[in-house]
Structure formats: structure tokens, C-alpha cells
Amino acid sequence: MSESNLSKLLDYLAKAAKEVSKGDYRTAGEIFELTKSGKYPAGITQLAEAFGMMLVMVEAREERLERLIDDLKAKKLLLEEASKTLREANIGVLEVLGSAVAKRDHDTSDHNYRVTLYTLEIAEAIGHAEEHMRGLIKGSFLHDVGKIGISDTILQKKGALTKHEYNIMKHHVRHGSDIVGSYPWLGDCVDVVLHHHEKYDGTGYMSGLKAKDIPVNARIFAVADVFDALTSVRPYKPAFSYDDAIEVMKKGRGTHFDPEIFDALSGIGKELYNRVFFSDEDHLRKNLKVHVNALFKEEEK
After folding, report:
1. Alpha carbon of 2 to those of 16, 36, 147, 154: distances in Å?
2. How far apart are CA 47 and CA 227, in angstroms?
3. Which pLDDT band, with edges at 50, 70 and 90, does 145 fall under?
4. Structural contact between residues 256 and 199, judged by C-beta atoms closer than 8 angstroms
């Protein structure tokens, strides 16, 4: 075998290696044709054929990898779609259950939408950590779900409750925590449902927690809940004006309410009240949906 032929073969193999590095495997077949010519010694032929087989195997593995990647992409799309469907189903349950309780208690879902929007904006005003906001939305919308276990004679009574009736009413927070605590997706809202009637000075219920021992989501919600209760019509009272409601709540700063959170409401309250309180249910629902979609899409990532 001449050195010229050997040199040509080696040059060809070097060229083939460069083409393979660019993803072009067409030279593998040509290598096998060259080795059939009988021009080269057995050792050189075996080396060239081994190189050709390596190219064939690399190409096959790359094709399998591409198929695997395509399969993973397809499965990722299916998983994303399933995750979206589950998210929408969970949010649907959240809204239906919360609205059912609110309509039984107030004849309207407006309270739930308003108080949830108030809560979210107060939380944003104090720089509340985003990872706690999803639980805050769930807890705000389901805060009174335990009232399912309270009789209509107490729940819809016009006028003040007796001491016995009030003690029964207080247990709605435990009923609620039992309900939401049984569903893993709602686990992060138990703190709001169970503790939203605690007071900053420790005189609230059911656990008598004080100051920072009260979960922060419950402290935020308590401010929003009382604010909406005061500015809304209830069977036992007319609606207070914004200014009157703030004056009443100011007396509870540091006793009923976390001072920092009450101050946050005071700072944004007038504009927030005007924007939320005078909106109809459809507008409130659309407004809340913007927040929900943004926060719960992050949950899927």
C-alpha cells in the first residue's frame, strides 16, 4: 500500500470526524465502501471500519436522544396542561365554597371579594413575602368556611348574640380549620382560618395568641376583615363611612390590631376603599382573578 493512499485515507477520516462534530454522519457509509476496495492492510481496514461503526453508533444515539427530547417536550406540555387544569379546579373549589358560605352569611359574595382584595393590597403595602401570598388569598376567601357548622338561628340573628350563642359562634374558626386542614392544597391557609379573630393584646379567640405569636397572615387579614365589616351593612348595624371606620379601628391600634399593619391600611385605605367598595361583584371578581392568576401561575413553576 502506498503512503499516498494511506495519507488519503487518514485525511478522509480526519475530514469525516470534523463533519461528525457538526452533526453530519453521511461519511460513515462512504468509509465502509472504501474499506471494501482491498487497497489497505487488514489492520488499517479494521481501524477504518471501527471508526465507521463509531459514527453509526453516535448517530443512532443522537437520534434516540432527539426522540427522547421530543418525548420529554410532549410530556412537559401535557404536565403543564394538567397542572393548569388542576390549578383552575382548585381555584374553582376555593371560589365556590367561599361564595356559598358568604351568601349564606351575607346574601352576597361581595364581602369575600372585597376583603380578599383589601388583604392583598395591605400585604403588598407592608412588603409581605410573595411565598406567603397564596395562602393569604386562600385564607381570605375561606376565612368563614367554618360557619357551615353554625345554625342559621345564630348566624342570621338580628341583634346581639347571647353569651352562649357567642361561644358557639366562636367555634366556627375550629370548624373551618378542620375543613381546610383536611385538603393538602389548602394547608397554607389554616393560619388565617383558625386565627383571624385573635387580637394583638392576646384577648382574642380561640387560642388567645398575642402580638407576633399570631401568624402574620392572620394579623393582616384581621385588619382587612374588620375594615370591611365596619364599612358594610350588617344585620346588626348600618355601614360606617370610611373616616368613621378608620376612627373606630384607630382605638384598637396595638390592642386589637398589629400597629404596623393598621398603619399600612391608613396609608392606602382611602384610595383602596374608593376603588374596591363601590365596585360590583363582577368587577371585584375580575380584579381578584388578576391577582390569583399571577400568584398561582408562580406556584406551578
Report:
1. 21, 17, 97, 107
2. 84
3. very high
4. yes
Is 60 exceeded by the pLDDT of residue 166? yes
Distance between CA atoms of 33 and 44, rounded to whole angstroms?
14
Q: Which three cell numbers stand for residue 91?
A: 381555584
Helix 259-276 with 216-231: angle, nearest 10 deg? 40
Residue type, 56: V
Q: How far apart are CA 276 and CA 135, in angstroms?
A: 21
Does residue 35 register a pLDDT over 80? no
Q: How far is CA 82 from CA 74, 75, 295, 297, in A?
A: 12, 10, 18, 13
The pTM of this model reads: 0.73
For domain 108-300, the question of CATH label 3.40.50.1370 is answered with no
SS3 label, residue 278 = coil
